[in-house]
């Protein structure tokens, strides 16, 4: 059985929690930001119909773990 539905649930939970926290703290000096990673090009979930649909050749938005870390590091400065 795939873990993918639980990963999507987790992303949704973080997005909702961030939105709620941002609303609660809107009148303070605290800023809440949410970093939403792109599709991760991995070998996870190989049991899918097309196990390569998360690779760069089929999904231009897919990034490697190294690429995500590099992007996040650049933006933090």
Instruction: Name the shape in a single word.
Output: elongated
> Could you tell me the mean pLDDT?
78
Fraction in beta strands: under 5%
Rounded to an integer in angstroms, the radius of gyration calculated over CA atoms is: 16 Å
Number of structural units classed as domains? 2
Which residues sit in consecutive blocks of at least 5 with pLDDT less than 50? none
Residue share in helices?
Answer: 40-55%
Helix-strand string: HH
Give the terminus-to-terminus CA distance: 40 Å
Number of helices: 2
Number of strands: 0
Query: Can you summarize the main beta sheet?
Result: none
Structural class: mainly alpha
Could you explain the architecture of this structure?
This protein is mainly α and 77 residues long. It folds into two domains: 1-36; 38-77, no CATH class. It contains two helices and no strands. The longest helix is centred in the first third of the chain and has 21 residues, at 4-24. The chain is elongated.
Question: What is the topological layout?
Answer:
Layout: H1 4-24, H2 65-76
Short recap of the structure:
By secondary structure, the chain is mainly alpha-helical.
């Amino acid at each position: 059985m795939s873990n993918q539905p639980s990963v999507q649930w987790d992303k949704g939970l973080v997005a909702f929690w961030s939105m709620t926290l941002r609303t609660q703290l809107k009148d303070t000096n605290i800023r809440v930001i949410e970093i939403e990673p792109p599709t991760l090009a991995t070998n996870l979930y190989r049991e899918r119909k097309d196990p390569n649909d998360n690779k760069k050749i089929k999904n231009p938005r897919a990034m490697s773990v190294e690429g995500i870390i590099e992007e996040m590091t650049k933006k933090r400065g």
